[in-house]
Amino acid sequence: MVEKYLDRQQVRERLAERGVTLNDRQVRRAMEPDAEGKRVIPAVKCPIRKCLIVRQSDLEKLYPSRDAVAPQTARARRAEERHAR
């Protein structure tokens, strides 16, 4: 399977589809390494275009779709309600 890579704008669009609204500057800061060399969004430098890119599969692991998260959240709420009684 061919791995698909996303640039900063595409990352921003994919996150918006998942309910995470960030502006361009926030996405850029999340992709850049911090003082410890770690990134919030795991990006690598493209050797051809010299820009940061993200593997689509990595982004999907970090930010699952809202449809996948909703049942998990609902189950957690029901469990909390049962324990609260």
Features:
mainly alpha; 85 residues; 3 strands; 3-stranded antiparallel beta sheet
Summarize the structure.
This protein is mainly α and 85 residues long. It has helices spanning 8-17, 24-31, 56-62, 66-84; strands at residues 5-6, 43-45, 52-55.
Task: Tell me what the structure shows.
Helices cover 52% and strands 11% of the residues. The protein has 85 residues and is mainly alpha-helical. It has one domain. The protein has a three-stranded antiparallel sheet. Helix 1 crosses helix 2.
* Annotation field: number of helices: 4
Low-confidence stretches: none
* Biggest sheet, spatial arrangement of strands: 1-3-2
Count every beta strand, where a strand is a DSSP E run of 2 or more residues. 3
Count of all domains: 1
Alpha-carbon distance between the two ends: 49 Å
Radius of gyration: 16 Å
- Summed over residues and divided by their number, the pLDDT gives a mean of 84
Shape category: elongated
Q: Supply the helix-strand structural class.
A: mainly alpha
Range of helix content: 40-55%
**How do the SSEs run, as a string of H and E?**
EHHEEHH
Biggest beta sheet attributes:
3 strands, antiparallel
The share of residues in extended strands comes to: 5-15%
Region (Disordered): 66-85
